[in-house]
Amino acid sequence: MKIVGFAANNGLRLGVVDGDAVIDLQAVDAAVPADLGEFLGRSNGDLSPLVDLAKRAPASARRPLAGLTFGLPVARPGKIVCLGLNYLDHVKEGPQRDNIPKFPSIFFRVLTSIVPHLQPLIRPKVSIQLDYEAEMVAVVGKRAKHLTMDNALSCIAGYSCSNEGSVREFQRHTTQWTMGKNFDRTGAFGPWMVSADELPPGGKGLKIMSRLNGNTMQSDNTANMMFPLPETLVYLTKGITLEPGDIILTGTPSGVGHARKPEPVWMKPGDTIEIEVEGIGVLRNPIEDEKP
Description:
Fumarylacetoacetate hydrolase, domain 2, 6 helices
């Protein structure tokens, strides 16, 4: 099942993708939350009520997928947890090439740094070094703490795509990456969430790639993560309680712009960047300059 956030009727809505249409769940039951995270909190991660709603939707609840104004799959994630340095070839192409991590490299993004599918990413006034990063996203479905390898994936409701865009110049200012990872509207999340039952456990074994103006820049497989999702969840929940609607960005493969030869490739106005994860879909965003 593909669950999508979108804007209509002067507000946010939640829908289920059915072929070339979207079933507007609020048009079936006005009590359904518009934020998937809120719904997951109420249902303890159970998506079956949405399946039932979609099955009994009248024809009037269907909207064309074409022309939809996409929102984030989770409108207001409580935590945006990110992994750095999770593919060995990516580690080797960067400044940490001689420092292979022994533990997951965890940092956070803020909501104002993320835009939905088809919305423009913004190159900031202060730097041209806007880089792309293809990533698979895991969406937390229910509260979790002190997970084990046996039960880690039980908290995951589904998967999505992200472009974990980075302003490299500011990322390198200090040993802490927060500034370069959180410029307004420099990353993306979408186009929808695919329920976990439709993908391999942990999203393992999926092709992942980025394309800039149709040219493949990154191409790898999620099986090559140094810290696969179950191990990452176990590590995270030793200290952090995960809540419904939290999202986890699982790291990017090699081929990012700053490492391209003979010179770096930065995203610039007029470009289009696509992130594709097998079985999930394609996240697409144009690039624009920050306005005065």
